Amino acid sequence: MSIDEIIAQRLWQLRKNKGLSLEQLAELSAVSKAMISKIERQESSPSATLLGKLAAGLGVSVTQLLSETQPAAKNLWRREEQNSWQDPDIGYLRRQVMPPEPLNGLEMVEITLPPKARVSYPSWGHASYQQQLWLQEGELSVDYGESRYALNAGDALRFGVDVAVTYANTGNVPCRYLLVIHHPQGVLYAQDQPDKRQ
């Protein structure tokens, strides 16, 4: 199954399981009804920013829009088992180093952001979670609400998604960073959530 097929299926499934119409999700996510419909019909590939808006509107993590099912319970994840997704517009690359653990919601994601590229995410509001960022290579600016942090390789930052966040590569080479994300309520996948319309 292609990544666009996975995103389309997951978006539709999560929206239905939460009992949301296209109009309701459009209002919650600030993404147009037409665009949501195009993504669900695989007529459009979402950008990283668009995925973030949809995830925030649904109250789920971006990982839940990019993963077919809950990952197997195991301790070792080989490089070839770590799924990657690339933004079709700016080339932002997201690699799921370790998927979320269902009980404690811990996950690890590696991001490679091209030179001068930026990605913005809205506040997750009531479904917010915490994350720690470790910049491995390059330069990165993080706007977290009203605060701005300029990071160099080796720097680490702790912050949440309770307010809007923007990541910007301020350098002339790609930057690479690791996000360790903690979902305090754990992570539920679509098949684990009841369909409220039944």
Give the tags.
globular, 6-stranded antiparallel beta sheet, 10 strands, alpha+beta, 198 residues
Topology summary:
Blueprint lengths: L2 H15 L4 H8 L3 H8 L7 H11 L3 H5 L17 E3 L6 E6 L7 E8 L4 E4 L8 E8 L1 E6 L2 E6 L3 E5 L4 E4 L6 E8 L16
Antiparallel strand pairs: 1-2, 2-3, 3-10, 4-9, 5-8, 5-10, 6-7, 6-9
Tell me the Rg in angstroms. Answer: 16 Å
Q: Largest sheet at a glance?
A: 6 strands, antiparallel
Task: Write down how many β-strands occur, each being a DSSP E stretch of 2 or more residues.
Answer: 10
Taking the alpha carbons of the first and last residues, their distance comes to 28 Å
Output the helix-strand order: HHHHHEEEEEEEEEE
β content, as a range? 25-35%
State the secondary-structure class. Answer: alpha+beta
Q: Kindly state the percentage of residues in helix.
A: 10-25%
Count of DSSP-assigned helices = 5
Q: Going across the major beta sheet, what is the strand order? A: 1-2-3-10-5-8
- Ranges with pLDDT <50 over ≥5 residues? 188-198
Assembly state:
single chain
Mean pLDDT over the full residue set: 88
Shape: globular
Summary, kept brief:
This protein has 198 residues and is of the alpha+beta class. Helices cover 24% and strands 29% of the residues.
Fold and architecture overview:
A hairpin with a 7-residue loop joins strand 2 (93-98) and strand 3 (106-113). This protein has a 6-stranded antiparallel β-sheet, with no helix packed on it. It has a 4-stranded antiparallel β-sheet with strand order 4-9-6-7. The chain has helices at 3-17, 22-29, 33-40, 48-58, 62-66, and strands at 84-86, 93-98, 106-113, 118-121, 130-137, 139-144, 147-152, 156-160, 165-168, 175-182. The protein has 198 residues and is of the alpha+beta class.
